[in-house]
Design a protein that fits this description.
7-stranded parallel beta sheet; 607 residues; alpha/beta
Amino acid sequence: MQHPPTHEQIAIIKTRLRAVVVSAVAGSGKTETLCARVRHLLAQGVGPHDILILSFSNKAVSVLHRKLGRSIRISTFHALGKSLVEQRASFNGKKIKIATPRQSLLVLRAAITKKTAVRDQAMKLGIDLRTKFERQRLFKFLCDGQGNPSLLRSLAADAESPYSAYASFVDQLLPLVKRYNELLRVQGLIDYGAMLRRGRFALAQQPLPYTYLFVDEYQDMSGAQARLLSALSRRTENVMIFGDSRQAIFGFAGGIRQNMEHVLDGPTTMPLTRSFRLTHQTAALVNAVIGGRNAVIGNGNGMRPSLTTSATAVSMENEIVTIVEGLKTGGIAATEIAILARTKAQLRLIEQALITAGHHATPAHSAALPAHTQKVLSIFTLLNRNANELAQQQKLSALQRRFFGQKLLKITQLSVDRKVLNACLRHLFSGVLAPSPSGRYEAATRLYLYLLRSATGERKQTEATTELGRWAAVSEKFRTSNALRAFISKLRAQVPVTLSTIHAAKGDEWDHVIVAGVTDGSIPFYREISRGDIEEERRLFYVAVTRARTQVHLIHAPFHHAPSKQSFSKPSRFLTPTVRNLCKAIPPESTSAISSSSSSSPSLECS
């Protein structure tokens, strides 16, 4: 541990209780405590092969392996389920294999081939389940739904999900799902969604060689994972699970805020209440948000949270730029600054504002794909250098048209048929007529995306759309593609600040965290308000404010949700009078000066 263990940590490390739920606040060192508990057991003579540790992602498993080595079994729930199924199959002399994505898609195609009512209904809605794209989307839908009908309905009901097209006939899809699973069984295959369910059944028919079972981040469990854990706990002498129920934020993806009394047999709850990440000021804010008196104990004095009210979404974006500039001027490294928002759409607008102001930002939800940008800039150059010639398209010879077609294919390194290429040439001809450099950049982008989709499909096009959209707003500042290329190259040489949805930020931390859109309709989200279920949104806000080691910056501004065509202007209901009193209210025009002074003089912000 990086600090002396607290009395709470020592009690957990040395306990002899059989079943323990460790309720750990954000930043309380729960993973370090888990590792210290394991090391204590090893020092007491417990063999490494007697210990099983389960977590919820390959990333978390890798972290635990780095801390504890490879001699201890550390696994995701799904990987354990897969191993249990394979062991049972081997024991019974049967051949059961995990279906590869390609095999699963082939089985799904076979399930769809039979003419069914759902296929006809989908066709009426313009969805042809027989196409490769729809098969891939349906397969991803089934994987994300984990075979759970209620989760499938929830995913389809989300207007922002890629599965919203299925919303009106999810129940009719269920027989198709059943046929798909039957075909998998006939071929001796199981898919990702079946690993947990069939792993639990396989567990009852074979010995379990572990004496100590640990689970990290229990609040992320789905119903199927909870049932597997319950079965495991009945076969294991000692069970200890770590987590923070206040960070249960994945209900939309099947996560269930479990009552551990229903999962484990008579567990004892042991708390970790001191956060080594949060200051006293941030901890006070957190307690006001979750309604718990001293539920979270901070670790030292720090800066008061700030609260800025912006009149428009655009002014909020400008305020964020000003805060970032003030922090960087005050010596805060870009790597220690994060901007969090409820939706990716909000982050895209903030990213464009930062880029236009000359600040590099990296969205956590989408990787930078500079190759796409370079290709569009080359098409932009082609437009500029041949503007006069392309403007006279009617006078171009067949040889000249072929030259421009070959040039496009060489730039993009794609292969398409003549019909698609001719359509691209029409885009090229119309692009040269754009009256501004930004218009030509947009024309080059449209041409490239059309060509990319024709050659590679929608997924690649979607990835490229996100990448190319980063530069749309700033392109109007540059008359030539070379000037824009130089700006992008210089910007990418900077160390970036982080942009992230709140969901994706869980598990990370930074010195300064800017939470954008603290507005009813955004946080809490409009859909949860209409359902009358905002407690998960409160937990989401808890996750946002607990990412900051030094200071939280909250910004309220009007929020427009384009997919639902709704606008919201009231401050978030989470900004209660108590929360507001704990924050330093910052007039928008004062943000720059206050951000800069707070960075260089932390004592001025201490309460």
